[in-house]
Specification:
Layout lengths: L1 E2 L6 E2 L13 H22 L7 H24 L9 H28 L3 H22 L2 H5 L4 E2 L11 H4 E2 L1 H38 L12 H17 L7 H16 L19 H4 L4 H5 L1 H5 L19 H12 L3 H35 L5 H35 L4 H10 L3 H10 L14 H19 L6 H30 L7 H27 L3 E2 L5 E2 L2 H6 L11 H18 L7 H22 L19 H5 L12 H6 L10 H24 L4 H4 L18 H21 L12 H19 L20 H6 L1
Helix pairs in contact: 1-2, 1-3, 2-3, 3-4, 4-7, 7-8, 8-13, 9-14, 14-15, 14-16, 14-17, 15-18, 17-19, 18-19, 18-20, 19-20, 19-22, 20-23, 20-28, 22-23, 23-26, 23-28, 26-28, 26-29, 28-29
Length: 796
Amino acid sequence: MTTLAGKTELMPWYGEDSLDEISNLPATLSILAVNLLNAELRFKRSEAYDIGSDEQQEGSDVLAFMIPKLVQLVEAMQSQIDSSLDNDTNQQLLELQCRCYWLASAYYLQSGRICNESSIAKAAEDLGLDYLDKVMNIMSSDKSQQQRHQIKTPHLQSSTRHEDYWNTLSLETLSKYKEYIQSSAIVSSARQRFSDIQNEVNKRSQSTTADMEKTVNVITKDDKAKYSSLGLELLERYNINGEKASELINELLKDLLLLHEDHLQYTPDMNDEDNVTTPRSKASTWNGATHWGRLWTEIPSSSKAVTNTREESSRPSIIQVLASSLVASGEKISSLLLMFSKLALSAVSQVQATQQDDSTVKKDNEVVDLQAPSTTNNTRAGHGKKNRLLMLVVNFFIDKMNDLIMSYTDQADMVDAMESHVTSQDFKGLILASLNMIPFVLDDSTDNSSLHMNIFKSVSRLVHTLRDHQGLSSQTREKVESVYFSSLVKSITRQKKDFAELTKTNDKRLKKWQLLITSQADLIFFKANEIAELLSLNPARVNKDGSAEVSHLMKAITSQDGEGSNSTATLAQFASTLLWFWNYLSNAYDILSPTELSIRDRLMVPIVSSIVGLCGSPGVSVEPLLDSRDDTMSSDNKSSSLSLSDFFESDDSVNGLFLHGSSSEENRQQRSRRVLLRKICQLVQCVSLVLKSVNLKLMRQEDFLSTLDFPSSQHGPFLPLVTVRVLSSMSEAIFDLFSVDISEVAYPYGARECGSMIDSLLGRAYSHLYGFSFVSTESFAPKSYAPESIKVSIVS
């Protein structure tokens, strides 16, 4: 063992330290072989560490010491290769030479890729290419060709190094590697060209604005032509629609993390007033530069931020060069949108893969504890740091997608790209995975609660931008809503499991538990509000023949949107989740901690609003309503009927009186109407039951609720607003079913009671919204609001 100058740690070198004179060639070959294998294995292990971590830095220091020493030793031994050596010794020395130069080439090329300084990176890459040429020269020499040699190096292969040249060194495999390096040289050349263009633009603009406080960068037509050539060249290199698309995207992502890790920071916290989502008007005022800082302008999504000033020695990332070039030239903006989406989706996939690996390791360790606790903790901590960076990447590129769409909303090719992309599986997968990435874990050392919130809000902003985009077709906007709604439903269903586990914790005095369950409640609050808003704005439509047309939202969670076989499992789980939350929040007999009491008041309005919104969709069933012998309804109507009797208690008289009979005199349409009327009565009863659990202060959003962000807050308190939307739709449905006066015999017995209950519930809601009520005993809110629409005012 020896030491490195300036360091106190022992550097691993086995054998004699000074080898200026080689007197014993066999012994020197042994020293070379042992130290070379040690360096190779350390090089392989280095890829498992995060860039910048203590383990990675330590491994880099060791390799920086060992590789030059190995090269020095090999070159000193080169003079010993002659005809006097026996064939086996000569061949062994050639193999060790090739392996040594190959390791040096791989090490220096990797060092060049992760270096931030352009000059140092260029020098490292040049040195790596020199050593690669030395390997190929040895492999092509006469002495080597006589043996038709292939050098096996399986110990260098890994999960990310699976190409042939990592397993076997030969002229063929090294030629493939050189082709890969030459294609990478295009990237290095593009970086340099981009830096030259940027520096030229910045110097020109600074010289013309020397007397001004603010630097104004002016891009000329010649500059745009250079940017265009550079951007198109990189687009061809990183073809996201080709066979190797996933590998290329991973290369972009890895390069981004290497060069921008220090800048991947979302500075404001989740309570920042500017970082809101639900009021659509505020989405356009959100400022990415305020939240992301330098990184937002380094990877531009609008022409305003293309020529940001930067240090001349800093090395730009590939996505920075690509985005800046395309935005500056104004070409292929739609391709940049897809690139941002692919990068976010790739980051999500890596987070999910790490999560699955951690779950497998955890299960294995529960059976047999083969790992030291410190090693397991270090591994989890490393994964936690990497996952956090990847989640920040997801957050960043979703924000970039939103900004790009808003900046180029009028471009025809951009609209076409959005039409194609938002209806693709990639978009659906991105939204779903972003809202269901990493579960909250009490014993996790990394607090990702703010990241979960920020990602949710970024997704919500993107969805609202697409929903409000008038250039998109109505079908596309409905598709966006459906994907978002389905993802929210699955997310809150999954989150209920984590929340339920937290409520079972024995010691609720722990500060970490209080922070974690509060963070969970914050996310549930926003998600439930969005669900209630979507459902209340898209109720089922009742037809005069007694059929109900379900909304695109309900079709999405029951697989009636043409993308799979019909299934009501998601709907059943969603209804069960809402009922669990309602029971938890309304149970007055549980002994709750102060934190849980605060959470109860915070979540009551969103959860009840979601239940009321779901009651406005009498169009999907979790059980067959009509038996198989009934042919009065079409197959579509049978599959889209709704019965919530398994979940909600309903009035016995209504259930008994409105069951369809077998009288031959009964008109089939009339029977269908009565069946649907029974469902509406059940749902009205459900609305009445859940509204009784909400006290007056929560209903009017007084005290702390007045400071929270509810959807459509400009129209009044959220729960009364949702109630008015849903019950107005039900009231209109009853009239549409029979189209006669309520006193006529066409209305079945009990319909009047149902109508009276609707009037009573609407009256209470009106007192909180509009300052009047049908019931004289109702107290009125101090502030009244204008009706949400002309239709609402007419129904009112």
